Amino acid sequence: MALLLMPCVAGAASYYDLKGKPSLKNPIVLVHGASMGGAKLKIGFLRLGEYFQGIPEFLSQTGTPVFVVNLPTDASIQERAQVLRMEIEQKFRGQAVNLVAHSLGGLDARFLVSRIKYDKVASITTIATPHRGSPLAEWAVRNGQRKTPWYWLLKLGGFDLNRPRFVPSLVPAAMEGVFNREIRDAEGVRYFSVIAVASRRRASLAPILWFPDAFLRGENHPVMSREDNDGLVPESSQEWGTVIARVELDHMGQLNHHFLRFPPVPEKSLSMWFQIYQNLLDR
Questions:
Q1: What is the rounded distance in angstroms from the CA atom of residue 191 to the CA atom of residue 131?
Q2: In whole angstroms, how far apart are CA 268 and each of 200, 253, 265?
Q3: d(C-alpha 269, C-alpha 274), whole Å
Q4: Would you give the DSSP letter of residue 8?
Q5: Predicted structure pTM score
Q6: Alpha carbon 48 to chain centroid, angstroms
Q7: What CA–CA distance (Å, rounded) separates 239 from 276?
Q8: What distance in Å separates the CA atoms of residue 53 and residue 257, rounded to the nearest whole number?
Q9: CA torsion angle for 239, 244, 247, 251 (degrees, to 10)?
Q10: Which of helix, strand or coil describes residue 164?
């Protein structure tokens, strides 16, 4: 699938200022993906600040309430979805919300409305969510079970492949054979997705993601290993519902994190979030 770069709207500077833009009808709840620090982005021993770097401040310029949940680090999708429900109810007490979820968080959001039957969600927007799994999960499960040198090397770096309980669920066969068969779209909820890819060739993939990208491409999945990805999630796995944008951003750039990236590209990150806001405004 060809990559379409996101169009600019009135110049890059407009993405830094949403003041004066209309408020959304419903609050935004930001749902983070896998992070060893929950709502704080932590990878192994690396602490990189807020998971959604500057995004709540950016979106709240419209006057729209923006809330970032804090989900369990190593829990299953079901466990994370249960905490998601509790945090939304405590914050908004029966008010309908727009869920904007990154990566694994998109699966938590889908589980919330489908299996838990939480009916106060107006829309779910997923960003680079592995709706059909990722071969990288197969790599993680295999190396974790066999305690390979990669397992011990990552453990020295502060990351235990066997600890996160959600990882086996992300194996493509499990996603297609179990999760997607059981977790059906909820009636009355609008589903949107943002698809993102990046590449070392185009210098859009941060160095910290070069290794997972190489592992992903080294797997033998008949489709996903041969296509573009964002460093973690293959392109074809990211689509769910109406696709509202296709962007050239890696898995961290989507969060406005530009660790070891020179030069940083915050305008691309905020452009993506502007388009998410615009889509929700039009609904």
A1: 12
A2: 17, 8, 6
A3: 9
A4: P
A5: 0.87
A6: 16
A7: 15
A8: 6
A9: -50
A10: coil
CB 42 within 8 A of CB 48: yes
Beta carbons within 8 Å of 69's beta carbon, 6+ residues apart: 29, 30, 31, 32, 39, 83, 84, 87, 88
- The alpha carbon of residue 126 and the mean position of all alpha carbons in its chain are separated, in whole angstroms, by 6
Q: Which two tokens stand for residue 75?
A: 């829990």
Q: What is the pLDDT of residues 35-77, one digit of tens each?
A: 756 677 766 656 677 899 999 999 999 999 999 999 998 899 9
Indicate the burial class of 202 (C-beta count within 10 angstroms; 0-12, 13-18, 19 or more): exposed
- The owner of tokens 């830094």 is 16
Angle at 76 between CA 247 and CA 191, to 5 degrees: 40
In tens digits, the chain (283 residues) has pLDDT values of: 333 333 333 334 445 678 889 999 999 999 999 875 667 776 665 667 789 999 999 999 999 999 999 999 889 999 999 999 999 999 999 899 999 999 999 999 999 999 999 999 999 999 999 999 998 888 888 888 888 888 798 778 777 777 778 888 999 999 999 999 999 999 999 999 999 998 766 557 777 777 777 777 766 555 556 678 898 999 999 999 999 999 999 998 999 987 666 566 678 889 999 999 999 997 7
User: Any idea which fold 12-133+183-281 has?
Assistant: Rossmann fold (3.40.50)
DSSP state string for 81-112: HHHHHHHHHHHHTT--EEEEEETHHHHHHHHH
Residues recorded for the chain:
283
Any idea where the domains of the chain sit in the sequence?
12-133+183-281
DSSP letter for each residue of 228-261: -BSSSSBGGGS--SEEEEEEE--TTGGGT--TT-
d(CA 217, CA 101): 25
